[in-house]
Amino acid sequence: MFEKLITYLKFGNQYHGLEQVQINGTYCFYGISLKKKKKHLDVASSFKVEDIDDLKVHIPKDKPVSLVINTNAVLTKHVQGKANESLKLVQLAFPNIKIEDFYFETISNGGHHLVSLCRKSYVDDLLNIYAAKGITIIDFTLGNLVCATLASFVDLKEIQTSNASITIEDKSISKIISKEELVESSYNINGLVIKNNQLLSFASALGLVLKNQTIQASFSDVTNKLETTFNQKRFTNQFLKIGLGVLFAVLLFNFLFFNHYYNEVGTLKETAQVLETSKTNMISLKEKVYKTEKMVSDILKANSSKSSFYVNAIIEHLPNHILLNELNYQPLIKKIKADKVIEMQKDNILISGQTNKGILFSQWIYELEAKPWISSVNILGFEDINRETSNFTIKLNLHGAEN
Question: Which residues span the membrane (predicted)?
């Protein structure tokens, strides 16, 4: 009973699965919601949307979601060998990659193994996007490997997902073949009728219930952190609601049955004291906020004209093959703290972005160095993302700056 209560407090009685898939170069999202009734699971709802902003219509805020990343950024290979260690299987399937830059998953069936991987930067950026949209991701998986959760529930030798055909042997996945065009079909899984394009989202939601260990993943620490963060937030909200409910019930009971006791007077005095303390704290906080706002306002007023000039001058002749991610005029040296002087890198501009034309980047640096108001240009970083695109970070030292 206690375990069931803990599970309910953590996840409620609904489990949400979501697949982000890329078909013919176009993104779309397939989702499903499973509702737990005693020992049974029912499909509460399912959906397909083509815009991430539409997900909030189907997935309630602060509800846990298991995500299937099934885009072209995920690579899956079939390898054969006696080794069962995930790291060795990844090295066998992708011998030339820098393995610390990737998240990967593996499943094994005898001497047959399937390996899926994706760049960490891509996955991390995707998780940040979902968080910004109010979608609470607590677990994720790569490609079609999550179908291993369903293998023991179907008696078919082949099933189809949103973009692949999957072969099942001995209750385990033995082969995955990507296909762009698939005929819509449905499967009966323990009495639940699931369409093929909802199969991966269903498997990921089911994984929240079953906690399947068939798939070996390299990012369990990441998913554990996501789940821990979610649990802490949910427990705080749940206990806050329970605490407020209990407090309300106690106060109501006291009002109805013990109104004539003198203790109520003491309680009211204590409440008044707490409110007075809160009022005093609120006034103090308001003063601090006012001082901070004034400080920031003064800084912005002093630098607005200069920053506008520098930004316009940089952007005006920016080459088409250079994309800026950040342009920070006089960046902070340290984080802003209460009652502390704001320290900035005066007469400096920090710029970061991406380029797919190294020659144009070098020419742009040369043009910046020629600006009369720039004393020097320092390249702080230049890193290749892939064969075509590179990240860069440069610092512009303006006249009067200390290099």
Answer: 242-262
Residue 169 to residue 136: CA distance in whole angstroms = 35
- Of the CA atoms within 13 Å of residue 302, those in its CB half-sphere come to 9
pLDDT number for residue 3: 42
The ranges assigned to domains in the chain are 2-227, 304-398
Average per-residue pLDDT for the chain: 85
Average pLDDT of the residues in 33-54? 90
Query: Which H or E run includes 225?
Result: helix 220-257
Q: What are phi and psi of 149, to 5 degrees?
A: -65, -30
Residue 134 phi, psi dihedral angles, 5° rounding: 85, 15
β-pair type (102-109, 75-80): unpaired
SS3 content of the chain, % helix, strand, coil (to 5): 40, 35, 25
The amino acid occupying position 147 is C
What does each C-alpha distance from 50 to 178, 200, 220 come to in angstroms? Answer: 21, 17, 29
Q: What is the mean pLDDT of residues 80-84?
A: 83
Nearest Cα neighbor of 307 from 325, 326, 330 is 330
Asked whether the beta carbons of 18 and 201 are under 8 A apart, the reply is yes
User: In the structure encoding, which two tokens stand for residue 355, read together?
Assistant: 């380029």
Quote the pTM value: 0.58
In whole angstroms, what separates CA 128 from the centre of its chain?
4
Task: Tell me which H or E stretch contains 272.
Answer: helix 263-316
CB 211 within 8 A of CB 224: no
Is residue 168 within 8 Å of 160, Cβ to Cβ?
no
Tell me how far apart the alpha carbons of residues 261 and 86 are, in angstroms, rounded to a whole number. 70
What is the structure's pLDDT at 19?
Answer: 96
Domain boundaries 304-398, CATH class:
alpha beta
- Please list the alpha-helical segments (H only) found in 28-106: 55-58, 86-93
Model confidence pLDDT, tens digit, residues 344-380? 788 899 999 999 888 888 999 999 998 999 999 999 9
Query: How, if at all, do strands 14-23 and 186-189 pair?
Result: unpaired
Strands (E), 50-157: 64-70, 75-80, 102-109, 112-119, 136-142
Instruction: Provide Rg for the chain, Cα atoms.
Output: 28
**Which residues are CB-neighbours of 107 under 8 A, at least 6 positions away?**
113, 114, 145, 148, 172, 173, 214, 215, 216
Q: Which residue has the higher pLDDT, 65 or 13?
A: 65
